[in-house]
Amino acid sequence: KRKGFIFDLDGVIVDTAKYHFLAWQKLANSIGVEFTHEQNEQLKGVSRVKSLEKILNWGNITLDNEEFTGLMAKKNEDYLLHIEKMDASEILPDVPRVLELLEKEKQGIALGSASKNAEVILQKVHLIQKFSAIIDGNGVTKGKPDPEVFLNAAKALSIAPENCIVFEDATAGIKAANAANMISIGIGDASVLYEADYVFKDFTEISSDFIQELIKK
Ligand code: B16
Ligand code: MG
């Protein structure tokens, strides 16, 4: 059966989550707000606008529109410096193995990311041609945990949501996948991603048999 496999980008295909962390931490500290890994967890999968809103909230800071836009631009400039030097060596372990298996099995493969930088990154790591649909931060009006990004991906693949499987590293993304009525697979820490249908530390733990089972289901 042809299923839709939808991949989040940051923290699933590549470890850009660490670059987002560095850029947000620098920005938060520059306006006198402390920024911990626990706080960063709450920003994973969350749009740039919503992320800055949260940071300002933690610091009890109110800004006018112009200042807000300025800080968003600053964060992205810093983030772009980090991703500039990315290449295929930054693809997370066994992601290519799983993509190749899905390709061989003629499954639908889509990207469902909150990032507006998704295409640039996929190009840099030479994976863009693996995806028959790319839904990113430029193609949605409501960010994760809203299911819109994954529903749009399913539509682009012409596969019903209940026949889609989502790989996600963020709580917001797992919530979005569940709300879309898709199978949610957490990539990361099970104590954080407990709402997912399955959790694996990374793709090295995902066997070909497991993927075949998902296809047959
Ligand atoms: P950008 P994902 C998300 O990507 C990141 O997890 C999140 O930390 C980031 O704020 C968001 O993209 C927006 O990214 O600033 O590049 O548009 O995990 O959904 O692939
Ligand atoms: Mg992510």
From TrEMBL:
Signal peptide: none annotated. Coiled coil: none annotated. The record marks S113, K144 as: Important for catalytic activity and assists the phosphoryl transfer reaction to Asp8 by balancing charge and orienting the reacting groups. Substrate binds at residues 8-10, 24, 43-48, 51, 75, 113-117, 144. InterPro entries: B-phosphoglucomutase_hydrolase, Beta-PGM, HAD-like_sf, HAD-like_SPP, HAD-SF_hydro_IA, HAD_sf, PGP-like_dom2. Keywords: Isomerase, Magnesium, Metal-binding. Its EC number is 5.4.2.6. One of its GO terms (biological process) is carbohydrate metabolic process. The active site is at D8, D10. Belongs to the HAD-like hydrolase superfamily. CbbY/CbbZ/Gph/YieH family. PANTHER family: FRUCTOSE-1-PHOSPHATE PHOSPHATASE (PTHR43481), GLYCEROL-1-PHOSPHATE PHOSPHOHYDROLASE 1-RELATED (PTHR43481:SF4). This is Beta-phosphoglucomutase. It comes from Cellulophaga lytica (strain ATCC 23178 / DSM 7489 / JCM 8516 / NBRC 14961 / NCIMB 1423 / VKM B-1433 / Cy l20).
